[in-house]
Amino acid sequence: MNHLFSPLAISMLCIGVFLIVGSIGAQRQIDEEKREGKK
C-alpha cells in the first residue's frame, strides 16, 4: 500500500503546488495590468 500511495501523494502535492503558484502568478499579472490601466 505504501509503495502504491507514495507516487500518488507526490503527484497530488505537485499538482497542489502548481495550482498555488499559478494562482499567485495570475494575481500578480492582474495587479500589474490594473496599475498600468490607472497610469
Unreliable stretches:
none
Report strand %: under 5%
State the end-to-end distance.
57 Å
Q: Using only CA atoms, what is the Rg?
A: 17 Å
- Average pLDDT over all residues: 88
Can you tell me the overall shape? rod-shaped
Q: What oligomeric state do these chains adopt?
A: single chain
The largest sheet is:
none
Helix content: over 70%
Structural class by sheet pairing and helices: mainly alpha
Tally of separate helices = 1
The number of distinct β-strands equals: 0
What is the N-to-C order of secondary-structure elements (H for helix, E for strand)? Answer: H
Keywords: Membrane, Transmembrane, Transmembrane helix
Transmembrane segments: 6-26
Please give a quick description of this structure.
The protein has 1 helix and no strands.
Task: Explain what this protein looks like in three dimensions.
- The chain crosses the membrane at residues 6-26.
- The chain is mainly alpha-helical.
- 95% of the residues lie in helices and 0% in strands.
- The chain contains 1 helix and no strands.
- It has one helix at residues 2-38.
